[in-house]
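Researcher: Good morning. I'm working through a list of sequences from a screen, and I'd like to move beyond sequence-only analysis. For each chain I'm collecting a predicted structure so we can compare shapes side by side. This is the next one on the list. No need for commentary yet; just the structure.
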Amino acid sequence: EIAAEVLWCAFMHGDIKGKTIADLGCGTGLLGIGALLLGAKKVFFVDKDAAAIEVLGINLKSAGITKGFKIENTDVAGFNTKADTVIQNPPFGTREKHIDRDFLVKAMQLSNIIYSFHKEATSEFINKLASDNGFNTTNRWSFAFPLKQTMKFHTKRSQRIGVACFRL
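Model: Good morning. C-alpha cells for this chain:
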C-alpha cells in the first residue's frame, strides 16, 4: 500500500507518465514496475544484488512487462544515466553507515525530481542535505513501514518503523 500511495502521488504530480525513471537500489522492482504500469516511458532498474535482480526478472514477466526497461546489475555509484525522476527506497544506513546519504547524493546527480524513503528520525538531516545541494522538500509522506525478517541481521520477525518518503 505504501508503494502504491507514493507512486500514485508521483503520477498525480506528473512525475511518472511518459517519463524516464531511475529506480536506484530497485531490489525486486516494486517501485519501478509500478512506474511502468502507470505509463513511464522507460525505467532503469539499478541494483548490485544479483539474487534480487533475478527475482526482478520474474516479477517483470509476472506483470506482463516485456519492454520499456533496462536492468543494471551494478552498484548505484557506477550508474550515471540521467532520468526525469528517481524513485528509491535505499538502505537506511543502519548496517552500512551513510549508505542512505550516498544514494540520495547520487539521485541528486541524476535528476531534478526525487522520491526517496528514509527513516523518519533522519528528516532534519535529509532536508539539510537537500538544501545544501540546491534541492528542497516539496512533499513528505509519513508511514509506519512494515519491516519483515528478510535478512540475517533482522532480529524480529516483523516490526514497524517510522519512515518518510520525501519528494525533492
